[in-house]
Amino acid sequence: MKISLLVTITIILLGAFPIYSSAQNGTIRGTVIDEGTGEPLFGVSVLVVGTQIGAVTDFDGDFEIQIGAGVHTLKLSYVSYNTVEIPNAKVEAGKVLVLDNLVMAEFTSDLETVTISAEAIRTTEAALMSVKRNASNLMDGISSSTFRQIGDGDAAGAIKRVTGVSVEGGKYVYIRGLGDRYTKTVLNGVDIPGLDPDRNTIQMDIFPTNVIDNIVVSKSFTAELPADFTGGVVNLETKDFPEEKTMNFSVSGGYNPNMHFNPNALSVGGGKTDWLGFDDGGREIPTAGVADIPQFPDVIGSPNSERGQQFQSILRKFNPTLGGTRQRSPMDFGLGYSVGDQFNIKDKKIGYNFALTYRNETEYYKEAEFNLFGKPRTSDVFELEALERSSGDYSTNNVLLGGIAGLAYKSDFTKIKLNLLRIQSGESKVAQFNFINTNLGAEFEADQYNVEYSERALTNLLLSASHFIDGGKWQLNWKVSPTLSTINDPDVRITRFRVPTNTIGTEVGLPTRIWRSLEEQSLFGNVDLTKSYMFNSKAAKLKFGSAYVYKNRDFLIESFQFNVGNTQFDGDPNRVLLEENLFSAENRNGIRYEPTFIPINPNQYNSNLANIGAYVSNEFNPLPNLKAIVGLRVEQYTQYYTGTNQTNTIIFDNEKVLDDLDFFPTLNLVQAIGQNQNLRLAASRTIARPSFKELSFAEILDPITGRTFIGALFPETSEGGTEILWDGNLQATRINNFDVRWEKFTGRNEIFSASIFYKMFDRPIEMVQFLSDPGSFQPRNVGNGSVLGLELELRKSLDLISPSMKNFFFNANLTFVESKIDMSESEFRSRELTARDGENVSRTRQMAGQAPYIINTGISYNNMISGIEAGLFYNVQGSTLNYVGFGNRTDTYTVPFHALNFNINKTWGKEDRLQTSMNVVNLLDDKKQEVFRMYNAEEQFFSSLRPGRRVSLSVRYAIW
Amino acid sequence: MKKITSLLFMFVAAIMVLTSCGDEETPDAQVSITGIPATATIEAGATLGPVTAQISAPDGLVSLTVKKDGASIDTKQFNGATTGTYEFTYTAVAADAGKNLVFEFEAVDRDGSKGTATHVLTVGAAVTSVRITSNITGEVTWTADKTYILGGRIFVLNGGKLTIEAGTVIKGEAGSGANATALIVARGGQIFANGTAQAPIIFTSVADEIESGMIASPNLDPDLDGLWGGVIVLGRAPSSFAGDVSEIQIEGIPASDTNGRYGGNIPNDNSGVIKYISIRHGGANIGEGNEINGLTLGGVGSGTVIENVEVIANQDDGIEWFGGTVNVKNAVVWNSGDDALDTDQAWSGTMDNFIVICGPTTDHALEIDGPEGSFNAAHTVKNGTIVGHPAAEMGDFRDGARGTFENLYFIGFPDPATSNGRGDLSISGDKSLANLASGVLKFNNIQTTLASGVALDVAFRNGVHTSVTAVAANENTVGADKSAFAGWSWTAVAGKLDALK
């Protein structure tokens, strides 16, 4: 159904485009950019020297010329700008010559003509550099011209090349080491929920690079951006008008010797449509449609009554597969298809693009460890105490199917873009662990079996338009974008047998089944007006506008546990729910289900929010070499909650849980120093708001870790209720941001910059353990925090070593951060109570989730003539506090993961139709680890995974 | 109640209309009675009223007589006043159930004129069950003539006082995990469950058809567990918590419910009296290590009296102590799903005279843990008879276990060598072993009857065997006095104690 829609669109698109180009003629398409502002130049005349043929750039700076095959010279002229000449533009019949990113500078001498070779235009990232140099706010990015050269197949791979960015798990982007809460990812400027709506960031690996025009990372706030970012905003802009007609097929395969073709990998029979990334309905909850679910005590006295039979029938609908089987694991593979073009219908330009991506990836982790260690009770013991240890192996199979379709229309003064995005993914996980519990009050060993499936889907529609009014003096932009996002975890299954007796009981935990579902609808709309004018004889802009965001989320968890009565087991998880073991009239103390979510379910809730924003922003030059952006944004944000606590004593019916009116002033100054240096200064206020889940009464037990997430609406008291540890009143965090950056652009594509940033957090939100129950975590406002960072960036050609090395670039981005949080009184007391002898407990600590340093560095090689691009990249993130310890639990930290990756791409043939690439990930075979730390004690593993080395090969062929 | 008020109102209105119409000119002034409803319906055991009768007698009122079904039940004298009032109330007894009671009110004035009013009270069947859905504050009494249904997690809150009459049956509704039904005495609340040997108080599931006066369940086997939660008492006595915090959340209650906290610094804290109670078919599991036991005692102080307790077929432990100072006398645990007796967090009271009958799912008869924080205290467990099962272990003493264990008799446990190490009593961990060596953990006068061929040091490991004497089956000279359980416990009534000495 979902796919058929996409297929229909493809057919329409493929069938509808007219074949325009005549046999003898070729096409030149290009974009002209103002070097001074980094923005497109409107009205530049482009002439083919020696002919009458020419064009004028439109508001996007785009032009198009149809001309006979041959070698031509183009001449670009614009009032008060230096004329640019491009000789040797080779036009072939029926082909498109793309000359994007033609830069024009304001005139320096009447006679000066700048000559650029057509070859050079194709090979630089000059445009983006130019944007970067001149942008008023701090931004970095990567554009489609780069994607064309390098082999990054998806946005996650590409964005790694942007400075100050780290990619977690190959999917999620973090800026300057700030955690997910402080980084935001948007698509075409629209806030869309990702496949994991609890995160601010969209999974980046779902976007193939051939549908992306550019990715821009803004690290400083300007008033037209949403205020809820602190570290930065990543914006993925999809293409509207492909420069040339393209149709690509790609095939890729990935092999990891640790994970693939392993005969001992785990797998489980799933649904018939698992290979498409969604469940076929076979994992549906057995109580679907049952209004009044019978419980065991209702039917124990009368198993064969109507209700008893209903109970027995539901019981027998639970899938009896509780464990995986050992099977050889397949390797990864992927397929891609994309098509795009632009054509004219009576002066009106139409562009379309469409892409389909399919990926099927398998992971298998051997010797995985997940542990829990605690502080010993006496303060003179300096050895962490093992509480729970689990070790074993697990497999995941992840299928992703995504499609994106775009249609764009451009007339002289209007551009309209329609974009449809649909992504679905399904992940099947099978695990087998040995579990040793020596936690307080328990002591046992068990075999644990997990079978899980998670399906996610995202559908986003975007309609956006730009109108150029009064000869381009005014620009009106508007967007409307609805999104539907769903997550279902149908039938998470956890089973433990005690070792060696193979018994199941409360000590090891009862077999559990969980169904989770989340559905979120959102609507985004905005209107921006920009007025271009001259100030101090420099271009200036006044922008104002308004944005509206509405989100509505329904959340539900239903879980069952199984009391096994007096049933005996042999340790085989798939022989637990045997017919002869199940409750019946003849077997009254047999296995029965217990629905733990009735009658009261705190994990069934609805939340919605509305955020209305308005801003005004002025960009002007108060002094000839000083550019300023001064702006003010205002946001009225309200969030509502419908749900109940576990005892049903607190019932919220669309109750307002957050109501904030905030003003966000912003100031950005750019002082140009000479031709190629800038000094930037930025100051702004931003906000970080709690999520839907955080502002709730939810009590979500993770049966694997035994941890319980508790919504922030619950208070916690101590000392018989006289001391309030948490008042249940979770507030957004206001952040004041300051940035200073000096940057120097030297030569082609080279940069050196140094930034200092300082952020003050007013009571940031962190996950905090309950003092009365260390297994329960709650989001709470903690003490004030601050982040002070230094960021250095260098991109340099190695031609300074030897001219022959001009195609080698050295890249380094280093971020060092010192973060500080004032501990809450309860945290400080808890730390004092459990301090070791000689340990001095400070009242401050580093911020959870904030990396102390990030190093991104690499050497790349780029030879356009041979079509070879290669790079060796190294990334490491300093040990980061991820869980704050409380009571006898101690802090956990990540262990630096030294990622050394290599990639090489080569394009083949005269027309570069064939592109091959190879990626090797984790050359050092490093492990992903987290540890428990205690004063003067040896670290112990919280988790340890060995991802192994992965080699992937991909081939892309351009049919057009 | 609201219904009665509105009936009354209608009645008064009707009388007023009638009286104004029926006014006749006579030399002798009339006597009239208003304010008594013509009819009402209540359930047996419920009380009508009080309603106030207004009597008008211009000639001077002498007396008012109330008759029930023709028999005079009350007379009130008046001293010739022209008006008078009479407060009428009636509590229907069981014998009234299903009847229409006719009450006649007759007022007489000085000249002998009479005014009458009639009330017909329809009495329905007695209320036999009361569903409890909200927490208990103030003083509340549960009586033996009714069955009390726990409709959720019911707390006796701080300052609340729940009295349960002997012979009362309390049943928990279905519910599992965090939805388990339970009776919880929060810190500062008190329970007075004064059962007797003749009329014990029984806590069970709604699935149990047991009625007041019965001991054995008429329809549930004694090994069915997990049908509801359990009974939890929380107090303010010292306990030893991890991280040395002053109070923590009891197992089985989500941390979000702050009524579930226990611990404090009042050693003689008084949570009330629990005598002759039997808790059956309960136990709920929120997550691993987070369960409701049959009887959970968290930080309960020594001012609390707990005597004669029975726990049968609980999904988790029978009785579990989390710190506190309370003493328990006479306890019997049969078919516990996990451990029979479980102690944690430096409980410092005494368990005196107990019997454990292990079932097929029982893990340890005794699971003894040490303090979790730096506060140390120890308990005494004495005079107990522990009957094993092929899958059960005698005991596990661990995590720095401390205390005195004396006059215990173990019988019926399997040979550890042939049962995957079941059937033994072991001291786990260096801290527990050190405590055993230093005498902080000690065993005195232990007797046992082992499976044939099992050596003492195989069953009683880590050196404990030196305190143990082997005796012939039920020839023990130490152990429980089973007479304490005779008559009122299902275990005794089911004959499970017959073979014991």
Automatic annotation (TrEMBL), chain A:
Residues 532-923 form the TonB-dependent receptor-like beta-barrel domain. Residues 136-233 form the TonB-dependent receptor plug domain. Pfam families: CarbopepD_reg_2, Plug, TonB_dep_Rec_b-barrel. It comes from the Bacteria. Keywords: Cell outer membrane, Membrane, TonB box. It is found in: Cell outer membrane. Its main location: membrane. InterPro entries: Beta-barrel_TonB, Beta-barrel_TonB_sf, CarboxyPept-like_regulatory, Plug_dom, Plug_dom_sf. Belongs to the TonB-dependent receptor family. This is Carboxypeptidase-like regulatory domain-containing protein. It comes from Belliella alkalica.
Automatic annotation (TrEMBL), chain B:
Keywords: Signal. The keyword Signal applies. Residues 1-22 form the signal peptide. PROSITE patterns: PROKAR_LIPOPROTEIN. It comes from the Bacteria. PANTHER family: LIPL48, SECRETED PROTEIN. This is Uncharacterized protein. It comes from Belliella alkalica.
